Amino acid sequence: MSILEYNGAAMIAMAGKNCVGIAADRRLGMQAQTVSCNFQKVFSVSDKIYVGLAGLASDVQTLHQLLEYRLNLYELNEERKMSPQVFSTLLSNVLYSKRFGPYFIEPIVAGLDKDNKPFLSGSDLIGATVSTDDFVVSGTCTGNLFGMCETLYKPDLEPDQLFETLAQALLSSVDRDALSGWGGVVHIITPTGVMTKELKGRQD
Amino acid sequence: MGDSAYSFSLTTFSRTGKLLQIEYALNAVANGRTSLGLCTKDGVVIATDKKLSSPLVDVEHVHKVERITPACGFVYSGVGPDYRVLVRKARKSSQSYCLQYGEVQPVSQLVKQTASVMQEYTQSGGVRPFGISLLVAGADGDGTPRLYQVDPSGAYFGWKATAIGKNYVNAKNFLEKRYQDDMELEDAIHTALLTLREGFEGEMNCDNIEVGVLREGKFSVLTPAQIQDYLDEAN
């Protein structure tokens, strides 16, 4: 049993035309037993930065609180908004600071920088980060997620098209994974605001 | 700093509510060589009198204007060795910031950090305040050029133009007359040199002053040759 697979998760972040989307499943399990069907794994740290935390649920909640603490302190001291690139670097350092006793989380970051240009990044549990311009995935069915994204992704999708693409990629991927699914949530971040929709999927 | 035998502060309040150690530190600053700075919308200039005790001193190895981050620099008036300690601490803290956030530390944060260190030395056990005031020229988080002064007490102030050290009263009056809000960086550099010359004892040349410039978000110390060009233009 891998500790990263104890609770189960599936998430994708994808870039569109002047927008980014981030989607995740809703299942919280304890190995085979499903405990909750509305567990939050994607958090907004600011209006234009969303972070998805896939892995051990306890660390999901703790890390979310820690990152919110760090971001709020930054914005208060510096009197300016944190850019997603800086947030991604911060997250990487927080994870590496626990190099020999890590948080069991593999996060993804999606946001719009100050010029409203899409930003995506994903990292491993000890902070190794990669930044891409198309999509990032994380969770217990990354094989499925990569396959669906690679197939369905097109650059420069409008917000509505991005939503459809994310929703289909996520729902199809989790159907072949026992540990993720039980519904989904999608956030589409645009310069004018965030559109959030719940997905109805197979409840098994 | 300060071991257990000195776990009490040496800076204590007088009956009138003053912290005399800080007052005395400010005296040390007022006896130091003049430094000044001007902030414009497109940059900042800081300059100081580098007058040496003897013509035998190797002036190339005297550094009063120091770069702390690619986007910020310090100059001081007061006790030189105390300055070097603060420069080291400031450089280290700004590198820590860069490691944490992947970005150059904005000048406002650097100033707060440095001021905080200076304040610590007025309250910690067994230490004395720094005998210097700093002028900090740098770019803020949004790229705006800024000039700050930091005092031995840890108080900091943003300035459009200011002077510290020996001749600061006359220098500030001179600056007040010459400063304009829509000044450009080149004008500011000229004004800085003229102000420095006002109170200069003896002949001012490119080897006995030091000038630092923040231009387009990058801080650099002018070479003697560059200073000489500006001095030639002023003549």
How would you characterize the overall build of this protein?
With 204 residues, chain A is of the alpha+beta class. In chain A, 30% of the residues lie in helices and 33% in strands. Chain A has helices at residues 57-78, 84-96, 142-152, 159-174, and strands spanning 10-15, 20-25, 28-30, 33-36, 42-46, 49-55, 105-112, 118-123, 129-132, 135-139, 184-190, 193-199. In chain A, strands 10-1-2-11-12 form a five-stranded antiparallel sheet, with helices on one face. A five-stranded antiparallel sheet of chain A has the order 5-6-7-8-9, covered by helices on one side. The longest helix of chain A is centred in the first third of the chain and has 22 residues, at 57-78. The mean pLDDT of chain A is 97. With 235 residues, chain B is of the alpha+beta class. Helices cover 35% and strands 24% of the residues of chain B. A five-stranded antiparallel sheet of chain B has the order 8-1-2-9-10. In chain B, helix 2 packs across helix 3 and helix 4 (168-178) runs antiparallel to helix 5 (185-198). The mean pLDDT of chain B is 94. The chains are: A alpha+beta (204), B alpha+beta (235). Chains A and B meet through helix 1 and helix 2 of A and helix 2 and helix 3 of B.
